[in-house]
Design brief:
about 240 residues; 10 helices; binds cytidine-5'-monophosphate
């Protein structure tokens, strides 16, 4: 059944985090979901368990896949990893901005080299993990406050030619102000009004996150753990639609 909301999104902003233990669970979930309504994020747990075959299968099934492996290594190794990821036909992949400009530029070259078909995958960077606080930065010898450091790494990412960053929705306004519109902001920590907060603390609703400048919203448990995932997805798209008019 096609939802009225789904017709509004030629490029759905929802990226469902497939935080499952194995390929069987992930594929069972994906079978319930229409690829036009969302993208899928494959992270370290699922990739380590299910491997590139699962990614290729999801791509074959028509899904746009964000391969969230956050590469951080010497430039040559990261370039080769990005090339291999791009060959799988993923829609988006990422690296750590703290790997530096040379590593990010190598990632960009590897991504472009491995690209198949018409779409070169979006390459984005993680700035400061939201699990880190000021004390952790201090421990690592970073004296800047977190916001300054996030902004510095986002600017480095932009200068290296990448497409955007993963950031908390709280940081979106600051990054937009300094870097402008031509930069993707991908934000986790999203909870629709009907969902539980789980272990996320600084949360925004999907509409709030889009209003502060996020382009794509990473949402896991409110969809994956719902009794009816497709209905939860439709509800979120409708919630966005009802606040964007
Ligand atoms: O289930 P939930 O919506 O909390 O899942 C959010 C997803 O985004 C998870 O895959 C989590 O690892 C990821 N993520 C996050 N916070 C970050 C970075 C990534 O929640 N700062």
């Amino acid at each position: 059944m096609q939802s009225p909301a789904s017709t509004l999104f030629t490029d759905s902003p929802i990226v469902v985090a497939l935080d499952f233990q194995d390929a069987q669970q992930a594929l069972a979930f994906a079978a319930q979901i229409d690829p036009t309504l969302c993208k899928l994020k494959v992270g370290k747990e699922l990739f380590t368990s299910a491997g590139p075959q699962l990614v290729a299968q999801l791509v074959d099934n028509g899904f746009k896949v964000f391969l969230d492996l956050k590469f951080h290594d010497i430039p040559n190794t990261v370039a080769k990893a990005c090339e291999a990821a791009a060959k799988l036909g993923v829609w988006m992949l990422n690296v750590h901005a703290s790997g530096g400009s040379a590593m990010m530029q190598a990632a960009l070259e590897g991504t472009s080299k491995g690209s198949t078909g018409t779409h070169t995958p979006y390459l984005i960077a993680v700035t400061v993990l939201t699990s880190m606080n000021q004390a952790v930065l201090h421990e690592l010898g970073v004296e800047a406050d977190i916001e300054q450091h996030v902004l510095r790494l986002a600017q480095l990412t932009k200068a290296a030619g990448l497409d955007g960053v993963v950031c908390s929705a709280q940081e979106a306004t600051l990054i937009r102000q300094h870097i402008g519109q031509d930069f993707l902001l991908v934000t986790p920590g999203i909870r629709p009004s009907f969902a539980s907060k789980d272990d996320q603390s600084r949360i925004l609703t999907p509409s709030q996150a889009l209003a502060v400048g996020s382009n794509y919203l990473v949402i896991g448990r409110p969809i994956t753990q719902a009794a009816d995932p497709l209905q939860a997805l439709h509800l979120i798209l409708q919630e966005i639609e009802s606040t964007s008019v």
